[in-house]
Amino acid sequence: MSLLVRAAALTNYSEVARAAGLDPVRLMSDAGISPSVLREPDLMIPVERFGRLLQASADLSGNESFGLCMAESRQLSNLGAVGMLIRDQATLRDSLGTLMRYQPMLNGAQSLAVEECGELVIIREALIAGSAHQPTRQRVELALGVMVRLIRQLLKPDWQPQRVCFEHPAPRDLSAHQRFFGPRIEFDCDFNGILCARADLDARNPWADPAMVRYAQQLVDKSAMPHRATMHEDVRRTILLLLPSGRCSIERVADSLGVVCRTVQRRLAEEGQSFSSIVNEVRTELATRHVIESDRPLTEVATLLGFSALSGFSRWYHVQFGCSPKESRAASGSVRRQAAPSQASAADRI
Q1: For a tag site, which of 38, 225, 315, 330 has the least CB within 10 Å?
Q2: What is the pLDDT of residues 122-179, one digit of tens each?
C-alpha cells in the first residue's frame, strides 16, 4: 500500500517554485500530482510522488535548499485540526506528544521521537523514502524546518535550537540554513533531528485553552478514523527510529507502541507480515540511501542499519543485492558522474 502525506505538505510550493523560475503546474503534473490538490489540504497524496516533486524542483532550480525554503512560512494552521490541538496544549512536551500520536494522519512515511538526555532533548525525525533510489534530502529539510517553525510559534519567534543535525552532506551554500536555523548546524550525522534544552519542553504555554483542546480533540478524533495506521506501518516507523541505536528488538518496538510482543506478532501475522521481514525491508531502503547515494564510511552505514560489525553488514548486503557494498558504491559513483552533465543541461533549459 502506498504511503500517504497530506496535500498541505505542499504549502508554499508554488511560490518557491515560481521564485526559482520553475513552472509549478507542469512539475506537479510530471510528478503525477494534480495541481488542484493545492486547494484541498486535507487530501492525501502518495509520498513517493511528493518526494519526486521536491527533488525534481531542487535539481532543476539548482537550489539545494528548496525544501527548507518551503518551510519558511509554515504555520500550525497548516496541520489542520491536529495543528489546533497542538496549539492549545499546556506545554511543548504535551504538544510534541500530541504530534507524535497523530503523525500518521499527517505523513505516513515520517516518524518522530523525543529523547531526553539529562538537560538536553533530541527531537529525532526519520523518513521512509517511499521508493528505492529516491533521495530524502528535500523532505528531511522541509520536515526539520517545519518543526522549528512550529516550536517558534509555541515558544517565541526568535527561539533557536542548540543544534540541528542532518544525515546528508552539507550543501554548497549554507546561507539559507544559517539564516533559518542559526549557526549550530551539523551534517553527515547519524540522525536527523533538533537538539534543545529540556526546560523548553516544560515551558508553560500562556495561550493554552482547555476548552479549545476539547473542541479540537473532537475534530481530530472524527478525522482520525479513516487514517488508522496498520500494525505494519506503526512497526516500520518505530524500526526506522530504533535501528541506528542497535536496540531494535521486537520487545523494544512493542514497548514503544505500548503493547506486548504477542500483540505485535499476532497483528502482523493478520496483515501477512513478520517483524523480521519489516526489519529487512527498512534495512534495504536505508542501505540504498547510505551506500549508493552517499559517501558515508561503510562502518558508519553498518551501525545505522543496526549491525554491530561491518562483516555482518557486508554478508547481509551481498545476500540482498548480489554484490558487496564497495562494489555497489563504485558502480553508483560512475553512474552519478555520467548523469551530472545531463542534469546541468536540464537546469539550463529551465
Answers
A1: 225
A2: 999 998 876 656 789 999 999 999 999 999 999 999 999 999 999 999 999 999 999 9
**Where in the chain do CATH 3.90.1520 domains reside?**
4-222
The answer to whether 11 and 74 have CB atoms below 8 angstroms apart is: yes
Amino acid at 98: T
CATH 3.90.1520 for domain 4-222: yes
Max distance between CA atoms of the chain, in angstroms, equals 60
Q: How many CA atoms lie within 13 A of 31 on its CB side?
A: 25
Q: Tell me the CATH class for 231-337.
A: mainly alpha
Residues of the chain with CATH 1.10.10.60: 231-337
- C-alpha distance from residue 336 to each of 56, 133, 232, 288, 339 (Å): 15, 12, 34, 14, 5
At 228, the amino acid letter reads R
Sequential DSSP letters for 153-171 = HHS-TT---SEEE-SSPPP
Distance CA 66, CA 226 (A): 32
Give me the sign of the Cα torsion angle 298, 300, 306, 310. Answer: positive
Q: How far apart are CA 69 and CA 14, in angstroms?
A: 11
Q: Check: CB of residue 164 under 8 Å from CB of residue 93.
A: no
* Dist CA 346 CA 95 (whole Å): 43
Placement of cell 541505536 in the chain:
245
Distance CA 253, CA 264 (A): 9
pLDDT tens digits, residue range 235-286?
A: 988 898 888 877 789 998 988 787 899 999 999 999 999 999 999 999 998 8
Three cell numbers written together for 314: 557486508
Work out the end-to-end distance of the chain between its first and last CA atoms, rounded to an integer number of angstroms.
Answer: 34
Q: How far apart are CA 152 and CA 213, in angstroms?
A: 20
Which amino acid, residue 341? Answer: P
